[in-house]
UniProtKB/TrEMBL annotation:
<dbReference type="GO" id="GO:0005737">
    <property type="term" value="C:cytoplasm"/>
</dbReference>
<protein>
    <submittedName>
        <fullName>Phosphocarrier protein</fullName>
    </submittedName>
</protein>
<dbReference type="InterPro" id="IPR050399">
    <property type="entry name" value="HPr"/>
</dbReference>
<dbReference type="InterPro" id="IPR000032">
    <property type="entry name" value="HPr-like"/>
</dbReference>
<dbReference type="GO" id="GO:0009401">
    <property type="term" value="P:phosphoenolpyruvate-dependent sugar phosphotransferase system"/>
</dbReference>
<keyword id="KW-0598">Phosphotransferase system</keyword>
<dbReference type="Pfam" id="PF00381">
    <property type="entry name" value="PTS-HPr"/>
</dbReference>
<feature type="domain" description="HPr">
    <location>
        <begin position="1"/>
        <end position="87"/>
    </location>
</feature>
<keyword id="KW-0963">Cytoplasm</keyword>
<dbReference type="InterPro" id="IPR035895">
    <property type="entry name" value="HPr-like_sf"/>
</dbReference>
Length: 87
């Protein structure tokens, strides 16, 4: 299992657009991916989970990825989350 703490840099946080991008990216991989926030676990392949997380700018999340293609999935998801910016 790979894990990384990430601070949300996007001013609007993981809003609907960002959540959609995250879910789309996570579903490309066989590995299971989750975000831990405030003691709760959210499935990265579920738009409802990601939207209900209400992750705002400056908040810390913990990304966890486990599975047969975890390294590729982990790199892709970390890059996506770290590079989310407001247009």
């Amino acid at each position: 299992m790979l894990e990384k703490k990430i601070i949300i840099q996007k001013e609007t946080g993981l809003n609907a657009r960002a959540a959609s991008l995250l879910v789309k990216e996570a579903t490309r991989f066989k590995s299971e991916s989750f975000i831990m926030k405030d003691g709760n676990e959210y499935n990265c392949k579920s738009i409802m989970h990601i939207m209900s997380m209400l992750a705002g700018m400056g908040e810390e999340i913990l990304l966890k990825v486990e599975g047969s293609d975890e390294e590729k999935a982990f790199r892709a998801l970390v890059e996506l989350i770290e590079n989310l910016r407001d247009e």
